[in-house]
Amino acid sequence: MKKTWIVILLGLFILASISITSCKKKEEAEPVKKEVKVVLYVNGTLGDKSFFDSANRGVEQAIKELGIKGKTIEGGYDPARWEPDIEQLSEGDWDIIIAGTWQLQEILEKIAPKNPDKKYFTYDTSVDYSKADLSNVYSILYSQNEGSFLVGALAAIVTTSDMPLANPQKVIGFLGGMDIPVINDFKVGYEQGAKYIDPDVKVLVSYAGSFSDAAKGKELILAQYEQGADIAFNVAGETGLGLLDAAKEKKRYVIGVDSDQYLLFKDSDPEKASYITTSMMKNVDKSLFRGIKLHLEGTLKYGEADVLGIKKDGVGVADNDNYRKLISEDIRKRIKELEDKIVSGEIVIDTAFGK
């Protein structure tokens, strides 16, 4: 009897040992996933209601929906700060460092190869992959010329329409922050879209020489209004906030940029928002969220540039309550038809790049 109990106890001990070993192996096979840390560095400030605010929304969405740890740092407008700031971030424990715009391109080309264990995103520009080993950098470009073609067509339709604030002159406006390729890519598409609708439409073009001078933006657009423009396209970041102020003051139509600017102002300043017919969406937020998601899935292709146009939801026209209120259904259908023709390749948009 005693031997029987010894055998039973020995068997139970062996089973328990097997169970413990099995659990240990299972724990070893399923390690705890490391929390991914992402920092967005903006070479400017938040509050532009367009470009940088859109980038920040993308990181905030990733924090909320993907469970990353994220932070946005405002670098301000002093270029002397940018390189030391990004170097410091690269020395920290961030897994992904996001730094966009053409002004940071050369800085990333210098810093990224020195930190091969870090991953970098840049947006609205691309690093030159032939210069160095930049296999840890993911670049995001946008086909802003496609979206700008659509709002250029809309502007031409508006200025030749019988809408309440349209005047008899076929004149539309364009405000650019700086005379640089990416802004000119907006301009080229905008002009082509307008001329597609009516070759006689005149496009007034002004550059502020800054993305942070709202007073200058207002001054330039008021001059365009004096020359007959009844609708103007804002492609100027914070400077473009002056365009919106001028539109409210003179009661003229506006096309916003990057973010849905009507939605951003409809509660804080409903009168100003009422003049925003639509916005040319450069979906920086969606593109950054998409990139972070692909990184987490292990499928993001570093070492190359991704071009996001209408087809990949990189750009488009904001469809909101005010767009549907101000713009008739027939005109909205016409804009949608043009969008479909761009996606199919029937309409090919010119670009400022390479010129």
Gist of the model:
With 355 residues, this protein is α/β, with parallel strands linked by helices. It has helices spanning 2-29, 51-66, 79-91, 105-111, 144-159, 181-197, 214-226, 240-250, 261-265, 270-274, 284-297, 321-326, 329-344; strands at 37-42, 69-74, 96-99, 119-123, 137-142, 171-176, 202-207, 231-235, 253-258, 276-282, 304-308, 315-317. It has a six-stranded parallel beta sheet with strand order 2-1-3-4-5-11, with helices on both faces. The chain has a six-stranded mixed beta sheet with strand order 7-6-8-9-10-12, with helices on both faces.
Q: Percentage of helical residues?
A: 40-55%
Radius of gyration over C-alpha positions, nearest whole angstrom: 26 Å
Number of helices: 13
| CATH topology grouping of the largest domain | Rossmann fold
Largest sheet: 6 strands, parallel
Q: Describe the strand arrangement of the main beta sheet, using strand numbers.
A: 2-1-3-4-5-11
